[in-house]
Design a protein that fits this description.
The protein is of the alpha/beta class. The chain is 38% helix and 17% strand. It has twelve helices and 14 strands. A seven-stranded mixed β-sheet has the order 2-10-9-8-5-3-4, sandwiched between helices. α2 packs parallel to α9 and α10 runs parallel beside α12.
Length: 364
């Protein structure tokens, strides 16, 4: 049987190096060796983007990427200010839902899921109306695979002295992040996407000054990051049980990322996979949902051909060892998505292209 390759937007196919790390041992999360591991991981996370290492600190928590996004917004979005949410997909809309659940003052600047963010509208809004203190948005919107233009958004945040809160869940470790140019205050991300770790640990990276000033009024016990920061950057312990074996895997995944050339090399590898898959599907008459120039390196979306069904495509590819992903919401029947993360080797890519030929070729 060929090994199964995950082409969904996380979790990813693990390298053998990371898989072996899962069996490193049975540790108690309240022992000093795990406290040291926590400090090591937090330091490595802050170094993924070298310019951020001096100004940002990480806190890990056991939970999915959404847990980290909710923790970031619950702790850093102002209670006495206004957060403007820029949304063009499921995950931007989820940020607005989180702010609403926590009773945080916010506005939603909604765009169609297939449309880019609108910097002109953002500039107009920041220059007029009630004062905006924070902008919250998604860097890579996996609803469609669009890489949002954070250079334009971030420049406006800096110009208007507005703090940026960023969902980098499916971009951290593979797309450029310019903290200074974007006036970035904090970001949320996870172990099991571009970092190639295991589901179960997510994290928030924020400026050191913000951690020091946390008010400790997160509206949540589990997601209150103040005790996490005090513990993890003090004696190394967390207020709640951390996922020990997942932490072993994350440490190894971060080392593997660094050994492989960092986020820049990982982005280049993803782009090469994207080009190869797109070329094969284009040859077979399968069109992208967006203009190819609009996509991230991480994931692309494709239109289900007329007369075909996502379920047939999914099942045919899964039978050959490849797991793709459906669209969301109104796109569920019209789109399938292919991610480029994880331990995908040259032979896997050739095998995938052959499977795509069989699935979409004239002879099916």
């Amino acid at each position: 049987m060929p090994r199964q390759i995950l082409l969904n937007p996380g979790p990813v196919t693990l390298s053998e190096r990371v898989r072996r790390a899962l069996s490193a041992g049975d540790w108690c999360h309240r022992e000093p060796e795990f406290a040291a591991l926590t400090r090591e991981i937090n330091a490595a996370l802050a170094r993924v983007y070298a310019p951020m290492a001096a100004e940002f600190e990480a806190v890990c928590l056991t939970g999915s990427g959404t847990a980290a996004v909710e923790a970031m917004l619950a702790n850093f979005a102002a209670d006495d200010g206004l957060t403007l949410v820029l949304a063009n997909g499921v995950y931007g809309e989820r940020m607005a839902a989180i702010l609403a659940a926590h009773g945080k003052p916010h506005e939603l600047m909604q765009r169609d899921w297939q449309a880019p963010l609108d910097p002109a509208a953002l500039a107009e809004r920041l220059a007029s109306g009630p004062r905006v203190t924070h902008v919250a948005t998604v860097q890579h919107e996996t609803t469609t695979g669009r890489l949002n233009d954070l250079d334009a958004v971030g420049a406006l945040c800096r110009e208007h002295d507005v703090a940026l809160l960023l969902d980098a869940v499916s971009s951290f470790g593979a797309e450029a992040i310019d903290a200074e140019a974007w006036n970035l205050a904090a970001l949320a991300a996870t172990a099991n996407k571009c970092l190639h770790g295991v589901p179960g640990i997510s994290f928030v990276l924020a400026r050191s000054a913000l951690w020091q000033a946390l008010p400790g009024r997160a509206g949540s016990v589990y997601l209150d990051l103040a005790p996490y920061y005090a513990g993890q950057h003090g004696d190394g312990y967390s207020p709640f049980t951390q996922a020990v074996q997942v932490a072993f895997a994350l440490r190894e995944a971060l080392a593997e990322l660094a050994d492989g050339g960092g986020w820049q090399a990982r982005r280049a590898a993803y782009l090469e996979r994207a080009r190869r898959i797109h070329a094969q599907l284009s040859e077979l008459g399968v069109a992208t949902l967006l203009d190819p120039a609009d996509y991230s390196a991480v994931l692309w979306s494709y239109r289900v051909p007329d007369g075909d069904r996502y379920a047939r495509i999914h099942d045919a590819l899964k039978a050959e060892g490849f797991v793709i992903y459906a669209g969301q919401g109104e796109l569920a029947r019209r789109v399938f998505r292919v991610a480029h993360m994880g331990d995908i080797r040259a032979a896997d890519l050739e095998r995938l292209c052959a499977a795509l030929e069989r699935s979409f070729g004239a002879g099916r």
